[in-house]
Amino acid sequence: MAILLGSIADDYTGASDLANTLTKNGLRTIQTVGIPDAALALPDVDAVVVALKIRSVPAADAVSAAAQAHQWLHGHGAKHVLYKICSTFDSTDAGNIGPVTEALTDLTGGGTVLVTPAFPETGRTVYFGHLFVNGQPLNESPLKDHPLNPMHDANLVRVMARQSQGTVGLVDLTTVAAGPAAVKARLDSLRVQGCTTAIVDAVTERDLGTLGAVAVEMEISTGASGLGLGLARALVESGQVPLHAGTTDGAMRPVGGLAAIVAGSCSRATLEQLEIAERSMPVLRLDSEKLIAASDEIAAALSWAGEHISSGPVAIAASASPETVSMLQSRYGREASGHAIEAATSTIAAELVARGVRRLVVAGGETSGAVVDRLAIPAFLIGPEIAPGVPILRTVGSAQGDMLMALKSGNFGGKDFFATALTMMR
Ligand SMILES: Nc1ncnc2c1ncn2[C@@H]1O[C@H](COP(=O)(O)OP(=O)(O)OP(=O)(O)O)[C@@H](O)[C@H]1O
Ligand SMILES: O=C(O)[C@@H](O)C(=O)CO
Question: Which helix (H) or strand (E) holds 149?
């Protein structure tokens, strides 16, 4: 299997978001969970998105995992590798966007790497280096309350500089609007000035087309799904890949079985979606304190699910308001409480699958990572889009047999996302 475009995604929901964008823009794409085992039969594809769970791990671990994934992608023919980060630039001053981008630059011979989290379809735009989320500066958006990496600075040149060894430049919108040659010239001049990376503005898909045309001629780039759109279009427009329409063959064959939602995301969007879901299905709100204290909250949740699930889908959520989350974190610590709840939600998901669930929606990036790892799913085919950034996924090579899943990034999806997803998954 020779591929043209590779991506290393820093979390699993982000990987499926990118795989969805690449598919929609004409590339046959598969999402693997980690570096695929040599024995795993993968279909013929143009792009492989290797999903890692490295957004919130120590920078040295993220660098090492990303370097191995890069080696695999490069070895399988990828001419360009996109490091897929979150469209809200989720990271801390310790990393991992800066360290991983710089490590990949070292592996590929230097230059100034183009970095942009812009994804206008979901309201993420970058203007003079500042990230806006649905028109609000990042630090005033709901991301200021993120449970693991609250974002307090919208100026990405500063954010990136705090987590980088090298100097960070800016390619502003005026330059992007002037087209690929102007962007290239600006990146060249930043390279001469010694910048290892540059935050690049984009507010429209046209801007992303320009950036894709520039990035595709380089070996690596860092960005969100919007940059994926630009890269896919550049590959198709330059004739390097024929345009493929639709989803992967066989991705949507019905699987039947029971259906469930497991939510660990505490984003404002997920909290609203759960409220709406309560009108159409049974929703169990877990007691997060009890989950952490390792009492019988998991067994109680499974027994509750057992009572309802044969009549239709159920939802089980650890999700809580920012106030509840910060109370729990001040008592148990940010990482410890996050990990304990991820362990609990993934156990619940695995037990639901053991009891016959074959259509599973998971809300939250870290939560999805924990669930997919727990189920040991090796890869996903990409089905139709449920909402921007969230496709239906079909498991490949999983011990449970074929399942349909949706991994919803915390902030993605409309108010009725959960019901819509389950209606589409048969
Ligand atoms: N009640 C709670 N109190 C404290 N932490 C919680 C609670 N419920 C969930 N969590 C933790 O909050 C974190 C939520 O992160 P996750 O990545 O799953 O969602 P998200 O940040 O909304 O999604 P994304 O990363 O896709 O934007 C997880 O570590 C989860 O275990
Ligand atoms: O880019 C995004 O916002 C998402 O794909 C994501 O990475 C959230 O985890």
Answer: none
Helix%, strand%, coil% for the chain, nearest 5: 40, 20, 35
Angle in degrees, CA 193, 194, 195, rounded to 5: 100
**Cα(325)–Cα(328) distance, rounded to whole angstroms?**
5
**Residues 6 or more apart from 268 whose CB is under 8 A from it?**
142, 411
What digits encode the pLDDT tens for the residues 2-42? 799 999 999 999 999 999 999 999 999 999 999 999 888 88
- Cite the DSSP H helix spans in 25-96: 59-75
Label residue 287 exposed, middle or buried (CB < 10 Å: 0-12, 13-18, 19+): middle
CB 388 within 8 A of CB 344: no
Which of 341, 362, 374, 411 for a ligand 1 pocket mutation test, highest count of atoms within 8 Å of Cβ? Answer: 341
pTM of structure: 0.95
Which residue puts its alpha carbon closest to atom 27 of ligand 1? 410
Atom of ligand 1 nearest to the CA of 369: 18
Which residue ranges have their beta carbon within 6 Å of ligand 2?
Answer: 11, 13-14, 17, 86-88, 224-225, 365, 389, 409
User: 3-state DSSP call for residue 297?
Assistant: helix
Torsion of Cα atoms, 234 then 33 then 285 then 391, to 10°:
30
